[in-house]
Amino acid sequence: MFVLSLGADGEVLEQPVLVSIGTQKGTAEVQLGEVFSEAYKVGAKAIIVAHNHPSGDPKPSKADIAFTAALMDMCDRLGNIQFLDHLIIGSPDSANGLGFVSLAEME
Fold it and tell me: Is residue 24 domain-resident?
């Protein structure tokens, strides 16, 4: 999973930072602290997280949805970092024809 940290005006503060690596058949263990540690290091005011599904199907898993909810909750609690989106990257040939899913658009 990558974290993209943004400033108050939406400017990218640094290149996306890798915070977790999954496996072909398993899920990646991502800790909320890792995501927010990276964001705080650069003074982020907003974050976007993204990861891929090696299967090519970008449909969010239950774990993806739960992790997104946890990120949103933590941002609400902290109050100084806005959660913008969780993108799941798949294959351009996926069922939705886009090759990715935006969890923010699913709400």
Answer: no
